Each structure stands twice: as C-alpha cells, then as structure tokens.
Known about the structure:
The complex is a heterodimer of chains A (113) and B (111). Chain A is globular and about 35 Å long. The model of chain A has no long low-confidence stretch (mean pLDDT 93). Helices cover 0% and strands 57% of the residues of chain A. Chain A has 113 residues and is mainly beta. In chain B, strands 2, 4, 5, 9, 10 and 11 form a 6-stranded mixed β-sheet that branches. Chain B has a 5-stranded antiparallel β-sheet with strand order 1-3-8-7-6, with no helix packed on it. By secondary structure, chain B is mainly beta. Chain B is globular. Helix content of chain B is 0%, strand content 57%.
Amino acid sequence: DTEVTQTPKHLVMGMTNKKSLKCEQHMGHRAMYWYKQKAKKPPELMFVYSYEKLSINESVPSRFSPECPNSSLLNLHLHALQPEDSALYLCASSQRDSLRPQHFGDGTRLSIL
Amino acid sequence: GQQVMQIPQYQHVQEGEDFTTYCNSSTTLSNIQWYKQRPGGHPVFLIQLVKSGEVKKQKRLTFQFGEAKKNSSLHITATQTTDVGTYFCAGRSWAGNMLTFGGGTRLMVKP
C-alpha cells in the first residue's frame, strides 16, 4: 500500500476536455512533485512544490497547470492536451527536499484521444 | 544540464545468478538514491548514499557510491524472481534541488 494517494487511477479524455489529477499525502511532507513517465522510460520531473510554493517548473507546457491548495494536497489541471501527453503521471512527496527519499503514488494512467 | 546514465538497459539472468547495474553522472553529486519499479507499479525507494566511497547492504543488495561521487552501482547476489523490475538511480547535484533519474535497468529473471 502506498502512503501517497492519487486519483483517478485511469483517465481517458479528449483533446478539448478539462480534467484534474489529484494527489494526497498525510505524512507531513513539505515537498511534493509531479512526474510524467512514458513506457520504458524514467520518471521525468514536471513540477516541484516546496512548502506549498512552486519552486521548480521544468519548462512544462501551459496546458498543464499545477496547484497546491495545502500541504497535503497537490492537483494537476489539464486542458487541451495532445496525444503525446498520454503517459503515467506520478505524484511524489518527501520530507523537505530532494535530499530525502521520495514516496510515490500509484500514478494516474492518462490516455488522450 | 546534469545527465545521469545507466547501463545496461536490460539484463536477463537465470535465477540464482548475480546482477549489477551501473550509474554515471556528468556532474558531481551530493547524494544518490536508488528506486525499484515493478512492472505496472510505481517507483519505490530502496536506499540513499551520501558519502564518498560509501557502501551499504540490504540483504542480497549491495549499493556503492564512487570516491568521486559521480558513479554508483547496485549489485544483487543470487537473484530471485521477486527481483524482477526496473532499477533506477537518481542523483542530485550540488547546484540543484531536484533529482535526475537515470534511464533505468530492466531486470528479468528466468526461474
């Protein structure tokens, strides 16, 4: 069982849809991350939130919009995605920063039609 | 930017054989972490190495951090079918606040 909960587990959406991915942790971690992972590739960092503030944005297109409402929650808002955005989206958290181990959720498998 | 390379990409072994994956960074690292991802699963943290030349063991797994803190290795003794998965190293440089993952080594074990 993972201590980082992601919903939904699967999502199929059209290119004109708007949807959100959600991530929750109750370990008191103050750093939270969004990664994108394509099949047979490593996780690719998208965003880092540190103490609820966006600290890293790895040149991600604006059709992905992160939000951190509080220290336990992390959202990823999706709009006008492209077929190449189909991937596994992983949320992770760590105690403070990348010096600490990251705990990953099960991910949301996203398919863009 | 920082690059982390892992070899080999794939490794097939017979159950009971040993396995090693190697990780090399283009820059000196402050720390390196190792993760395992089972097929269909998510990465799970295995260990973190911080000191130059550090060696850590977890049962049949031995992790090493190079003296120059630019390379690392994971060695599994007498593989079992439960070792199947992709092993990723992830390094953090002194300058940054993010982990860069290596490409991963996919281990397959024949019973």
